[in-house]
Amino acid sequence: SAVISQKPSRDICQRGTSLTIQCQVDSQVTMMFWYRQQPGQSLTLIATANQGSEATYESGFVIDKFPISRPNLTFSTLTVSNMSPEDSSIYLCSVEAGASTEAFFGQGTRLTVV
Amino acid sequence: GQSLEQPSEVTAVEGAIVQINCTYQTSGFYGLSWYQQHDGGAPTFLSYNGLDGLEETGRFSSFLSRSDSYGYLLLQELQMKDSASYFCAVRPIYNFNKFYFGSGTKLNVKP
Questions:
Q1: What are phi and psi for residue A100, nearest 5 degrees?
Q2: Closest to A107 (Cβ–Cβ): which among B42, B45, B101?
Q3: Helix, strand, or coil here: A87?
Q4: Residues A35, B43: contact at Cβ < 8 Å?
């Protein structure tokens, strides 16, 4: 299993500013994933973050808007840049532990942009 | 690509049995998983079907039929605490390390 600490748990931000979300895992993992979940909706994969290489982004998401860092095997950050109210959502980081078929999630960051 | 469809909402009473369906269109995947998410909480793993058939884990069972592009989660002896959203998810063959989630089903359990 894996325990993930994500922070902040929530924030209210002004449009045009940026917010960096941190994700810390209690074990070394190869890949970390970032999802967005709008209220009452499903989880949409933003990008996959490998240590030592650039993140791989899904269609509709770009690095300039959602830059990701992955400095080591237990930590990653997602920045939501130049925010607008449309970015209001829950952002979740996730990992898969070893050969497990199970994904583990952080508690999420509830972002409101005003 | 991946497309996993679920009913948006299901309501049932305590003690009943409910089935949440997941129909999918995908170019190929390793298995079908189910996750539970309470309001304000993180998704948590419930069950995984790597092969066709039924997997049972306590009150929860999950079923997969690849020939029918269909799976379901069966919840028995419903409890109020089962009120949550439920998501099916797949890991595509072209990229084993990713999970793609279904549209989600909100389950309301009433007394």
A1: -65, 150
A2: B42
A3: helix
A4: no
d(CA A43, CA A50): 20
Contact residues on chain B for A92, CB-CB shorter than 8 A: 42-43
Q: Residue A6 — pLDDT band, cuts 50, 70, 90?
A: very high
Question: Per residue in B28-79, pLDDT tens?
Answer: 888 899 999 999 899 999 999 989 999 998 999 999 999 999 999 999 999 9
Rounded to a whole number, what is the distance in Å from the CA of A74 to chain B's nearest CA?
17
Per mean pLDDT, which range of A63-77, B7-21, B97-111 is the poorest? B97-111
Q: Which residues of B touch A (CB under 8 A)?
A: 30-31, 33, 35, 41-45, 48, 50, 87, 89, 91, 97-104, 106
For chain B, strand residue ranges (E) read 2-5, 9-13, 18-26, 29-37, 44-49, 53-57, 60-65, 70-75, 84-92, 100-101, 105-110
A29 Cα to chain B: minimum distance (Å): 12
A4 pLDDT tier (thresholds 50, 70, 90): very high
